[in-house]
Batch of 2 targets.
Target 1
Amino acid sequence: GQNIDQPTEMTATEGAIVQINCTYQTSGFNGLFWYQQHAGEAPTFLSYNVLDGLEEKGRFSSFLSRSKGYSYLLLKELQMKDSASYLCAVRDMRGSYIPTFGRGTSLIVHP
Amino acid sequence: SAVISQKPSRDICQRGTSLTIQCQVDSQVTMMFWYRQQPGQSLTLIATANQGSEATYESGFVIDKFPISRPNLTFSTLTVSNMSPEDSSIYLCSVLTVTRYEQYFGPGTRLTVT
């Protein structure tokens, strides 16, 4: 099985940088996803990491360390619209392509 | 990417009745799934919808309660049967693209059972 842990809630200031951490334990690793979910809306795909290192995509970056079972999502130049829940999801080696989702981190961006 | 539509977007239903949710995707996808998300909770996988055969259910979910159909590669339905207030939730259709690593979600169906 899998155990995925991320902080429940974080707050940050507009224009700042915030890092949302995700730690996981899995019997085999086959990729880690980050999703953004605004209240009342469906999750939207942000990133996918399967190899160690940093993947940058505009204001958002995602980092993975497989040996440490650790990932983070880095959001730069925060905007009010970044207030949302951020879900970490991990896929294992069972042969299925279905990831298991963490509980999500609610990010509140204030002026 | 894939664009997914769901119908209805929301409904209020009485205890004991059933509701069928439809999911349509704009392109052929390898896998389709149904998730449930209760308030303040993460996503729970109900089942994988298999084309032309019975769905694969996760632990805690059974076909009699959540019958699923997938007659072709772009369409699926989920029925919530004999509803109780505990079934009040958001139900989300999701697909995996042919690349097998990008997963997309429909807008969800917000169900309230009274």
Target 2
Amino acid sequence: AQSVTQPDIHITVSEGASLELRCNYSYGATPYLFWYVQSPGQGLQLLLKYFSGDTLVQGIKGFEAEFKRSQSSFNLRKPSVHWSDAAEYFCAVAYGSSGGSYIPTFGRGTSLIVHP
Amino acid sequence: NAGVTQTPKFQVLKTGQSMTLQCAQDMNHNSMYWYRQDPGMGLRLIYYSASEGTTDKGEVPNGYNVSRLNKREFSLRLESAAPSQTSVYFCASSGQNNQPQHFGDGTRLSIL
């Protein structure tokens, strides 16, 4: 069964510092990979996705992520964090099915705290 | 705005009461999903519907039932609510070709 690990429950950074959130997945095939962000009291918003092709993907709000097959990782990065980036971040992995739908599995989330 | 709409946003129930959570999407998506979110647990899939007329169990289906009423609507029913079902419930939808999910804003449900 597919699984997703986000090793860090909480990450604290200073505003303006760089950020990397870790995500590892386990399965044999090449997955579809996603990062979502959740602000307090809100639903999840897609930051970026990887389906195929270039392993470095750009997303919204200045985020990027790199797919590394050899490490089964899809880490999220941002060069300079803003206070408004404080939120919960979820990594998700999915595999295509013959019916065209897919069932993502979500990690447990990483809470980002930004200090002024 | 286009998207996923969940009703109600908040609800308090007593143990043993029943309730239906409503979800509707206006993006013409084929697939719809119900998740629950508990602290430290991420999102866990309750049920999903790959297309109109089909539903399947997810990771945590016990105590829930679903109905895919039409392509737009996917409801979640608690027949006899239990305190362990206190959670935040999210509905999501996705289109074809493994496109990302779009999420509603959630229903915060407390069962006393």
